[in-house]
Amino acid sequence: MAQSNRDPTTSRHVAVIGAGAAGLVAARELRREGHSVVVLERGSQIGGVWAYTSQVEPDPLSLDPTRPVVHSSLYKSLRTNIPRECMGFTDFPFATRPHDGSRDPRRHPGHSEVLAYLRDFAKEFDIEEMIRFETEVVKAEQANDEENSGKWRVKTRCSDGVVDEVYDAVVVCNGHYTEPRHAHIAGIDTWPGKQIHSHNYRVPDPFKDQIVIVIGSSASGVDISRDIAKVAKEVHVSSRSTSPDTYEMLPGYENLWLHPVIQTAREDGSVVFKNGKTVYADTIMHCTGYKYYFPFLDTKGKVTVDDNRVGPLYKHVFPPALAPGLSFIGLPWQITPFPMFELQSKWVAAVLSGRVSLPSQDEMMEDTKAFYDKLEASGIPKRYTHLMPDDSQFEYDNWLADQCDYPRIEKWREEMFYIGFKRIYAQSATYRDNWDDDHLIAEAYDDFVKFMSSYPELLPLLKT
User: Fold this and answer.
1) Where residue 463 falls among pLDDT bands split at 50, 70, 90?
2) Among 20, 112, 278, 402, which residue's Cβ finds the most Cβ atoms within 10 Å?
3) Is the pTM of this model over 0.85?
């Protein structure tokens, strides 16, 4: 851990942008460290992306910059793709609640159970008293007047009008599942069918008896293609991770096919895949991911988003030229998110208080450039900068834990994630309800009992 010589009791006035999982745990950790915290949340409730709404945007592709933005991208049938035991915060277990009939006891629960867990978390730690709901951040930038040198000016809009305030630091926790990325398809401009991004998908009913092409075979593509297949005439999945001659019916379905990427879309309504197959489709569904997007943030070019790389950022959190006054929580993906958010938040809180020190600006830039150079040398595109495959997420988590003198990630959590991830690919249709790692569940609940002793009212709800 990099200890600081500064007074460790320094208290900062900190703005946290967003009250999703990252913002909630950031607020907790900042207050635990002695900071004064204000959480700015555009919506009317906590949860961020986990706050389901049936509402969708009027532009089905979400391309219109003037559209009213719907934050959540959840579809009604969504269940978690990692087990609940390894998903929760390290000291507030995401345990089942067998004595509460309103809760979802499944190991891979639906989105409403995750939201209920986050509400439990917020209630336990009195987080809502720090949140200003229905408060949109219009602009966040460094203050340029002498009196507030080094501080941050944050302009917000709410029902009372526009408010301009100054903070010592800003922690960005606005998520990255709202601004869609789209597939580039030759000929799509003259193709006559409908297009929609999964951001605006909720239920399969509108696709009844249609022929639908789903672009993307990651988590949302797999889920949505199967959801739609229940009502559609045909569903064709286009995947860039298959060989060019792939054409196969997916197990368990008679109307669901896997193809390689699309070669072209034609004016007559046909879509041609790289395998030579032609499909006359009614709708193309883009399950193609999202962009990092910070329309409120003005850093005068010191932080940019270039091909979905937010940078330069030291360890995915601090921009060297603006640290520690600006930080980002929750950018990495393909991870166990809540524990990582928690550890990043502990680090940010400790740095802001002076209990932990950062390297110099030059040293942070050198480390960040070395990381980017390593990605480039390995042939990894910029857009995968924040992807953490293989062992990298737990190496990163443990590095963060070491900075804060906090226990490292539990071995059962690490192993459970790896086994679960392999299960997704091996049995994509059934992995949420069939598993073979009960021994890890037992280890997890042994750990949970230790932590739950801090919250005695929850102990009777633990799985026995």
Assistant:
1) very low
2) 20
3) yes
Looking at residue 300, the DSSP 8-state letter turns out to be T
What are the backbone dihedrals phi and psi of residue 418, each rounded to the nearest 5 degrees, phi first? -60, -45
Residues 40, 154 contacting (CB under 8 angstroms): yes
Residue 235 confidence (pLDDT): 98
pLDDT of residue 5: 44
Rounded CA separation 458/117 (Å) = 12
44-74 burial, b at 16+ Cβ within 10 Å, e below that, comes to ebbbbbbbbeeebbeebbbeeeeeeebbbbb
The H or E element containing residue 27 is: helix 21-32
State the Cα–Cα distance between residues 39 and 223, nearest whole angstrom: 33
Planar angle of CA 17, 18, 19, nearest 5 degrees: 135
pLDDT value, residue 2: 54
- Residue given tokens 């999703």 in the structure block: 20
The pLDDT assigned to 98 comes to 82
- Measure the N-to-C terminal CA separation of the chain; round to a whole number of Å: 38
Judge whether 196 and 190 are in contact, CB under 8 Å.
Answer: no
